[in-house]
Amino acid sequence: MPLGTLDRTPPPFFKQGPSALSKLMVFSALALFLMVADARFKITQPLRAAVNTVLYPVQWVAMRPVLLLRGGGTYLESLQDAQAAEAAARARLALQSQRAAQVELLTLENDRLRKLLELRARIATASQAAEVLYDAADPYTRKVIIDKGMAQGVQAGSPVVDESGVLGQVTRVLPLISEVTLVIDRDHAIPVLNTRTGARSVAYGEPTGAHGGSLELRFMAGNADVQAGDLLSTSGVDGVYPPGLPVARIERVERRADSAFARIYCKPQAVVEGARHVMVLTPVSGQLPPRPAPEDTAPAGKRGAKK
Predict the structure, then answer these.
(1) pLDDT for 97-153, tens place per residue?
(2) What is the CATH number of domain 127-286?
(3) Would you list the domain boundaries of the chain?
(4) Which residue of 90, 93, 161, 168 is surrounded by the most CB atoms within 10 Å?
């Protein structure tokens, strides 16, 4: 029997149904329909929720080892951090205890020396908290307005400080608010003391120019012992600021051969650009004893001749 006469078609038992291309097109259309229907009508949301509910126990059991390993690592890291923080806190506590003991000893020694030299006790400066409301409207000055005035006992000339240092001085007092001139204002000057050398000078505000928002030490000799990084504090000789308040830190010193004076620029310690809460101090002049009358200061011979 010739081979060409054989029937090559498969018997009905082995027929495969639709072709592979037809199946691809049908299932692709079905998948596209389901995606569009799910995006527009959320038809598979209940099915997804049911499957998620059924598979949640399996997921929970499968995630236990991972969570245990992760939690164990986090616990060990937290334990090490806590131990390191405790050690640092204990070291700081020991240092503070040592400093507290030294402060008590120095305070006692200071009191004894003052009694021995019959010096006046250091002035205790009264203060009150205030909040900065807004900047002054004048663009050519550096002033702010605070929410305390004459009704709260604020006086003209009162020093104003923040948590870092001297911020300025009260220059105008109204019934409910006060105007504070910042230390960087061009019309503001403050006597300062170099804490490293003990030299006194005067710092002036420098609001504009290349070094705007800073202070400048003027009339300092070119060979003066001034270095970048020196801290300037209030000297207390003006009768306004209590001594020892941080004012600024020297940022740059320019010594020029054509000038007898050095150009010294300082960065204020207080947050002059964004201060929010401040303290208003009572001027030192209000707590000092009154000055003696002119006749009391005259020499004894002259007083007798005048009589």
Answers:
(1) 777 877 777 888 877 777 767 655 555 678 899 999 988 877 778 899 999 999 998
(2) 2.40.10.350
(3) 19-121, 127-286
(4) 168
